[in-house]
Specification:
Elements lengths: L2 H25 L3 H24 L5 H28 L8 E2 L2 E2 L7 H14 L8 E2 L3 H16 L6 H10 L2 H15 L4 E2 L9 H21 L3 H16 L1 H8 L1
Antiparallel strand pairs: 1-2, 3-4
Helix pairs in contact: 1-2, 1-3, 2-3, 2-5, 3-4, 3-5, 3-7, 4-7, 5-6, 5-9, 8-9
Length: 249
């Protein structure tokens, strides 16, 4: 096999490595390191597909390897983060057996539905043009941003304080776990952020979304994740990527 064909796979494995190390850091209470690593994993997840298309080095093995890496970095890891957030909720009720509280385990619906989402993605050719259901990297980054907001408990910003307060309520986190799990396996058509060309006309919606996201990050820092997710769904509903593809075809 040519060396260039392995470059995307190497980037995919770096994504997987970041996810594995991030899980270890989460267990050690190094939450900022965990959050940083999940964002680095997302960068490599974007790069592996982009480089594969650029080098014309796409393969079935690479596609499967990408999904296997994503289930760790953007499925298992976000589930563990949500599990920790629920476990640390000050108002968490105790429903246990043998001193094991079962309520935080609801967070592990995230890796389960992420696995279903990725299996569907690998077997659905339509998702080469747009996504059906919430993409696992977007979900993982969203959960990581919530964790980061929760760590900013000394921030005087009103928005931070409001969101931070909501995230300390285990009931809100359980609802969030259920909602995100449903979105992962939903049939909602969402904009794909994969770039196949550098053409403005073909990528103007994606580029506009990225610019808006960048501005929101400047304005709200970690709390921007919530607004970015809302904008992502709103733009997808407005521009209907599935309809746009059918029209173009």
């Amino acid at each position: 096999m040519k060396l260039k064909n392995n470059i995307p796979n190497l980037l995919t494995l770096i994504n997987l490595l970041c996810g594995c190390i991030a899980i270890a850091m989460e267990f050690q209470g190094r939450y900022i390191v965990t959050i940083t690593l999940i964002f680095i994993a997302a960068i490599f997840d974007f790069l592996d597909g982009f480089i594969a298309r650029l080098l014309n080095a796409k393969s079935n093995i690479g596609k499967d390897l990408d999904s296997l890496s994503d289930i760790v970095s953007f499925g298992v890891l976000p589930g563990i983060i949500l599990y920790r957030m629920i476990s640390q909720s000050p108002n968490l009720i105790n429903v246990n057996y043998d001193n094991i509280n079962f309520i935080p385990f609801i967070a592990f619906l995230i890796p389960i539905t992420s696995a279903i989402r990725l299996a569907k993605f690998n077997n659905d050719k339509k998702q080469n043009e747009y996504f059906i259901g919430l993409p696992t990297p977007a979900n993982g980054l969203f959960i990581a941003s919530l964790s980061a907001v929760l760590l900013q408990n000394g921030n005087k910003n009103i928005i931070y304080n409001f969101i931070n307060h909501q995230l300390t309520d285990y009931k809100i986190l359980i609802i969030l776990s259920l909602l995100l799990s449903l979105l992962l396996i939903s049939r909602i058509s969402l904009i794909s952020l994969k770039f196949k060309t550098f053409s403005w006309n073909k990528n103007k919606i994606k580029i506009s979304f990225l610019i808006i996201s960048f501005l929101l990050i400047i304005l709200f820092q970690w709390a921007a994740g919530i607004f970015i997710m809302l904008i992502y769904f709103i733009m997808s509903l407005i521009f209907r990527p599935d309809k746009a593809i059918n029209v173009n075809d």
